[in-house]
Amino acid sequence: MIDTPSPHLDRSTVDAVEARALAALAHAATLEDLRAAQAAVLGKRGELTELNAVIGTLADTDRKAAGAVLNEARARLTAAFGARAEALEAGARTARLDAERLDLTETLPGPQRGSLSLVTQTRDALEDTFVGMGFVVAEGPEVESDWHNFEALNMPPAHPARSGFDTLYLEWGEQESTLLRTHTSPVQIRLMLDQPPPIYAVMPGRVYRKDTPDARHTPSFSQIEGLVVDRGISFGDLAGTIDTFTRAYFGPQISARLRPAYFPFTEPSAEFEITCTICEGAGCRTCSGTGWVELGGCGMVHPNVFAAVGIDPEEWTGFAFGFGIDRLAQMRYAIPDMRVLADNDLRFTAQF
Ligand code: 2NL
Fold first, then answer.
1. What is the bridge-based pairing of β-strands 199-208 and 136-137?
2. 3-state secondary structure at position 269
3. Which atom number of ligand 1 is nearest to the Cα of residue 223?
4. Which end of the chain has less Cβ packing within 10 Å, N or C?
5. Of the candidates 243, 305, 306, 231, the residue with the CA atom closest to the CA atom of residue 270
6. CB 319 within 8 A of CB 235
7. CB 2 within 8 A of CB 68
8. How far apart are CA 89 and CA 94, in angstroms?
9. Global pTM value
10. pLDDT tens digits for 46-94?
């Protein structure tokens, strides 16, 4: 170690200053206290800084050693104050975060827990049913190209069926080239482009239409569509699949029936109806006394759709079907107005 350079600046003087500074450091409970303690020793008028002046009064031969003692003490104290400041800052930050924490459950009336939206619960149950029947679940983008959403589905630019969708377009690329998908069918197009048959898949997801909200319409809703492509698939397979699904999901008291319909992407096409879940077929207001309610549509995949995705219609045939998940939940739980599905009113959500 370094010898005592002179009676005016001996080692013990520096040690005493350093010891006092470390005691003040340990005592500082806040960043402010710490800054004050640091300034008192290392600042312009600080105790250690003042000792610098003594160096000038020393003999030439003692200056170097004295300077080293002071510098070493300064370096140790600077490091100690820096480390303590970091620790105090971290503590202050944790305290601030704790103070600012907002407990959203405090506003709930009682010990109530959140739950999945009824639409999500319904979608999960539908997926389970179809997975149980051997289908896989596929997803795709909600922002789509005109080609995937319309053209590949046998709806060329001026096709009248397009106007039935009231599409929401994005300002992206060529005018009306990019849109919010109006149905989940483009996911099936992507699947057929990506992989060769056989395909047994369902596609659940959110779709968008420029509809004014009312009891039966919301501008965004969820759909599930199914697609089967294999050798020798017939309309009988379609009818059997719809019936099997209906019984598996709703129970044996509910059955399905098909009635002729038109969709541009299927031929022949059908809409499918199920036994009214409110009156179980007896006839009531919901089913206008018929005992049946419409659930969705289906049909054999149109050869033009196969042509668009490069599947040989001589080798492969297939069927597709689709229905609204919100509409299904509305029927299953007898919900008079679909808008409550998105309201997040606890008086509604707590029931499921
Ligand atoms: C409905 C009717 C349907 C399809 C969707 C479809 C998809 C491809 C090819 C052929 Cl890639 N068809 N989907 C077919 C018939 C009906 O939905 O009422 N949806 C809510």
1. parallel
2. strand
3. 20
4. N
5. 243
6. yes
7. yes
8. 9
9. 0.69
10. 999 998 888 888 888 888 888 899 999 999 999 999 999 999 999 999 9
